[in-house]
Amino acid sequence: MNFDVLRVYFVGILNRFIFSYIKMTTIVNDQNSDFHIHSVFSDGCATVEEIVQYAWILNMKEIAITDHSDHATNILKERYGIIPCGGGRYALNHWENVHNDVKVTFWVEGDVLNEDGDVCLTNQNIEWNFIILSVHWNWYLSAQETATKWLLNAIERYHDKIDVIGHPYNTHELWKYLEIEPIVELANKYWITLEFNHWTFKWNKAIKEKLDYMLKNAKNVYVNSDAHSLSSIKTKRQECYDYLKEMWLWK
Q1: Which residues contact 250 (CB under 8 A, 6 or more apart)?
Q2: SS3 content of the chain, % helix, strand, coil (to 5)
Q3: Is a pLDDT exceeding 50 seen at residue 163?
Q4: Which of 170, 179, 191, 229 has its CB 3.0 to 4.6 Å from that of 148, i.e. a possible disulfide?
Q5: What single DSSP character describes residue 172?
Q6: Residue 237 domain-assigned (yes or no)
Q7: What is the distance between the alpha carbons of residues 91 and 13, in angstroms, rounded to a whole number?
Q8: How much of the chain exceeds pLDDT 70, in percent?
Q9: Residue 122 — very low, low, confident or very high, per pLDDT cuts 50/70/90?
Q10: pLDDT in tens, 55-104
Q11: What domain range is 231 assigned to?
Q12: No. of H helices and E strands in the chain?
C-alpha cells in the first residue's frame, strides 16, 4: 500500500471522528487541490504536463488527473469520434513531476454499466488506486428511471474500491431520476465522499434542492472542477466555495 492510499485512509478516519461528534459535513479539499481534471487520455484537451505546469501557475498544491473509464472512452470514440491521444497511460505508473512541486495522482472516473451494478473502473485496462464513480446517462442508460437502482447496487458491490461519487445532483445526468437521499445515505454508510462539481454548478446544471441536500447531509464532500481544459481550472472553483460560504460550510 503506497503513501497516497495510506494518507486517504487516515484522513477518512479523522473525518469519521469529526462527523460522529459534530454532525457536520466536512469539505475535504480547499482551492489549492482539485481531484477531477480530464486530460488527453480521455476527452480533455490538455496533456498531463500542461495541466501540471498550469496548476503551478495557479499556486495549486495537489491535483488528480482523472480520466474516463475504458467503457466511456469506447463510447466517446464510437459515438462522437473522440479519440484519446495521450499514449500509453501505463507509463504514468513511473511518471514523475519534473516541472514543479505540485503533488499529482492519477484517478479514473468509473461508470455504472447495468441494473445489477456492474462497473467499469479501468482506463487502458488498468485499475487505478483512486476511483470516482459517476452515472452518465448518454453513455448507456436505456431506462433512466432505474438510474438510482443502478448506482446503489454498484455502491453496495464495490464500496471498498470507490472513493468518490461524482455529481449525483446533475440535470445533465438523468435529471430527476437520481434520488439524492438514498445515494447520500449509502455513501455515508461506507464513508464514500460525494462530489460538488464545479462544471455542473457553473453552467446551471445542478438541481439546487438535491445539491443542497447533499451538501448538508453528506459526511465528506470534495469540491472538484471536472475540467476538460486549462481555462476550466483557472478560477479554482471560486463559485463553489462562495456557495459553501453562503451555506456556512466554508470559512
Answers
A1: 27, 241, 244
A2: 40, 20, 40
A3: yes
A4: 179
A5: T
A6: yes
A7: 32
A8: 86
A9: very high
A10: 999 999 999 999 999 999 998 888 888 888 877 888 888 899 999 999 99
A11: 3-246
A12: 9, 11
Of 180, 233, 193, the C-alpha closest to 52 is 233
Q: Is the pTM of this model over 0.85?
A: yes
- CA distances (Å), 81 to each of 42, 73, 74, in order? 12, 10, 10
pLDDT band at 24 (very low <50, low <70, confident <90, very high): confident
- 168-200 pLDDT tens trace: 998 766 667 889 999 999 999 999 999 999 999
| Range 11-17 contact pairs with CB under 8 angstroms and sequence separation of 24 or more | 12/191, 12/220, 15/191, 15/219, 15/220, 16/191, 16/219
| Three-class secondary structure of residue 146 per DSSP | helix
- Provide the CATH number for the domain around residue 21: 3.20.20.140
DSSP assignments along 30-83, one per residue: -TTEEEEE--TTTT-SS-HHHHHHHHHHTT--EEEEEEE-HHHHHHHHHHH---
Indicate the angle between helix axes 180-189 and 147-158, nearest 10 degrees.
0
Q: Report if residue 166 sits inside a domain.
A: yes
C-alpha distances (whole Å) from 69 to each of 37, 85, 151, 248 are 14, 15, 16, 35
- Count of Cβ atoms closer than 10 Å to residue 182 Cβ: 14
Residue 58 CB-density burial (10 A; 0-12 exposed, 13-18 middle, 19+ buried)? middle
The residues that bridge with 206 in the sheet, in sequence order, are 170
The total number of structural domains in the chain stands at 1
Q: Is residue 251 part of a domain?
A: no
The C-alpha atoms of residue 172 and residue 68 are separated, in whole angstroms, by 17
Question: Which helix (H) or strand (E) is 153 found in, with range?
Answer: helix 147-158
Burial level of 103, CB count in 10 A (0-12/13-18/19+)? middle
